[in-house]
Structure formats: structure tokens, C-alpha cells
Amino acid sequence: MDKILVTGGLGFIGSHTVVELQEAGYEVVIIDDLSNSSENVLDGITTITGKTPIFEKIDLKEKDTVEAFFKKHSDVKGVIHFAASKAVGESVQKPLLYYENNIGTLVYLLKELKNLPEASFIFSSSCTVYGQADELPITESAPVKKAESPYGNTKQIGEEIIRDTCKVVPTLKAIALRYFNPIGAHPSTEIGELPIGVPQNLVPFITQTAIGIREQLSVFGDDYPTPDGTCIRDYIHVVDLAKAHVVALERLLKNKNKATYETFNLGTGKGSSVLEVINSFERVSGKKLNYKIVGRREGDITAAYADTTNANQVLGWKTQISLDEAMLSAWKWEQKVRG
Ligand code: WQD
Questions:
Q1: Which residues are 231's β-sheet partners?
Q2: Which residues form the NAD(P)-binding domain (predicted)?
Q3: Do 72 and 206 fall within a single domain?
Q4: What total of structural domains would you count in the chain?
Q5: Dihedral angle at the C-alpha atoms of 55, 57, 59, 63, nearest 10 degrees?
Q6: Residues 241 and 326 grouped into a single domain
Q7: Of residues 327, 197, 320, the one with CA closest to residue 274
Q8: pLDDT class of 89 with cuts at 50, 70, 90
Q9: Is the minimum distance from the CB of 110 to ligand 1 under 6 angstroms?
Q10: How far is the CA of 256 from the centre of ligand 1 (A)?
Q11: Catalytic one among 151, 179, 235, 305?
Q12: Residue span of the structural domain in which 218 resides
């Protein structure tokens, strides 16, 4: 049974990916520094799969600790790297924290993988690298634009570091997965999104407003050039996203990759506006959401949704979960955690 390292494996997407890896028969070891997650997520994972992954609390900024980890786990066959800081707004205020945490740690990881007999590496990237794409839906060949934030820049730089390393390390192959907007929670309601403080993202703010933690949702602008004036995004259920990681990893483990470095957009291929997401929530929850239209949020792009042809045809993966099902899973999770 291949051993797979999942960094950031107690986080939102990481924990759902650990579940899918275990259910696919892999042995999982998690590295997490618990800066944006909690150790009791392990209980949720164990409840779902009946297996407790190995967990090591490690800060990937500590080079010696990373080295020691790979001496102890030299049988790691693949790495799925989620661990990173990911708040766009915070990255503008604290750029050095983001460059150190998102870039420095990636370099340390890759230096260790270079020494393994062979290594398959899956990188958590983001549609943020495209900025406001000129054409919709967005394909992987769309130009990577100047990042709107240090966070987005760390994803762009991260992809370049991996691509350049794969060119000269014959035993290393990698796939960058460019996520659109991950939402929802595991159908078991044992794991889900646990935003710390005031949620930056739309869906947790909706569910926290509906359950009474937040007074009212502010809709950031309805004067965009879209059918209803609000921004359009591609909201993908986190379990669909997690399954794509297992498929991408297996492509590398089984040497099906056509190049040493590939990228795939992970989305539903369908755009939904903020108002459509709100309507979906009201439909599935039966609750009227308290929201108001306010001014635009700095840095928001008008529209982004994925052309998923590459992932569908090359990975043989496509999303199965609808927006309504995703919103219902988010609502059930909110009720479980706060109810
Ligand atoms: C979605 C839409 C907002 C909150 C970010 C990161 C991206 C990725 C996903 C990491 C926008 C509107 C939001 C609110 C609102 N993260 N909104 N009121 O900005 O598309 O993407 O998260 O990889 O990198 O940039 O997601 O959920 O913040 O916003 O009206 O209280 O909802 O204006 O149109 P975003 P989001």
C-alpha cells in the first residue's frame, strides 16, 4: 500500500482528500502546523473511514524538521501539498509572511523529494493565477496574468519552481491543480470548512448568517457586466475536488503522465452569480437569507469559470455534485458545528 504525504491534511480541502485517499486504499501521513486547522479533524476522518492517518505536527518552515521527517518516512511515494497561507486580503497586508510560508516551504519539500528514488507531487494551485481571463470558460492555456495579490503570486511562483525542478530531476513528476471555488462539506457532516474569525469567502458567510452568527451578508456589488450584476464564479464541491487529487496522483504513480509537469483546471465548468448562490441556499434550506447589496470589493474579478475539457478527457474526472447539493451540504455542516 503506497504511503502518501498530505501537507495541510487537517485543513478544509486537505481533510476531504485524506478521506478519499484512505478510501482508495492508500496509507496517509499528514503534516500540519495547526495554524489554520485543529487536531480533532483527525477524529472526523477516522469516523468516516475507520482509519486514523499518521499525523505529525510540523512547521514546514523548519528545514531540519522537514529533513528529519523524510529520513523517518523515506517510503513516501507521493506528496499532495496543501499547506500554505491562503487569505488573499491578509497576503496584501503581510507579503513576507506569504512568501516565506508559501514559497520557502515548497523549496524545502522539493529538496527532500529530489533525494527520493522517485516522487509524485500534486500542487494545490488556484484559478487566481489567471486573474480576469480574456476568454471564458478558462482553459489551462489561458495566459497567467500579473497576480492581483501576493497570495496569487505565490501560486504562480510555486508552479514555476515546480516546473523548473521537474525539468532537471528525472525522478520527480508533478501536477498543479488549479482550483476554482471550493465549497460544501462531506455528506457525513464529520468534516467541513472551519473558517477562523470572520469568513472571507461567500459560502461560509452565507451559512453563518443563516444560523445567526453573522447579522447580514454584504453582497459586494451588483453593477458588474453580468446578467444579474453580481460576480460569477465556478463553485465546486470539496468532495469532487478531493477525488480529482486521487485521480491526478494515480496518473503519476502509474506513469500515465505525458510530461513531467502538467496543469489541470478543477471546476464544474458552470458559472454561478452571487445572487444565484444565495437563491440556491434559500431553495435548499427553506430559509430567507438576510443580505444587502454594498459596494464592490477591491480586487474582485467579474467572472471566472473553468473549461474542464482537459481534466475530463485526460484525467477522466468530472464533477458529480450540483450547486444545490453543495449548498445543502454546507448548511448541514453549519448546523452540525454550531447547532
Ligand atoms: C466569491 C464571490 C465576492 C464574500 C477566493 C480566492 C481564491 C480561492 C477562492 C484560494 C465574489 C462575493 C464574497 C462576501 C460577497 N481561494 N462575496 N460577499 O474571491 O472568488 O476566491 O477564494 O485559493 O484564490 O481569491 O471567493 O468566496 O471570497 O468570493 O459578495 O461576504 O462572492 O465578491 O464575487 P473568490 P469568495
A1: none
A2: 5-326
A3: no
A4: 2
A5: -70
A6: no
A7: 327
A8: confident
A9: no
A10: 34
A11: 151
A12: 202-233+269-333
pLDDT tens-digit readout, 6-33: 999 999 999 999 999 999 999 999 999 9
pLDDT tens-digit readout, 237-248 = 999 999 999 999
Q: Are 231 and 303 in contact (CB under 8 A)?
A: yes
CA distances from 52 to 15, 41, 48, 251 (A): 12, 10, 10, 25
Task: Verify whether ligand 1 is closer than 6 Å to residue 183 (CB atom).
Answer: no
Tell whether 103 and 242 lie within a shared domain: yes
Ligand 1 atom with minimal separation from the 277 CA: 32
For ligand 1, atom 36, the nearest C-alpha belongs to 201
DSSP state of 273: E
Decide if 151 is catalytic: yes
pLDDT tens digits along 42-82: 999 999 999 999 999 999 999 999 999 999 999 999 999 99
Do 136 and 208 lie in one domain? The reply is no
Q: Tens digit of pLDDT for each residue in 169-181?
A: 999 999 999 999 9
Reported as half-sphere exposure (CB side, CA atoms, 13 A), residue 151 has a value of 19
Single-letter amino acid code for the residue at 108: Y
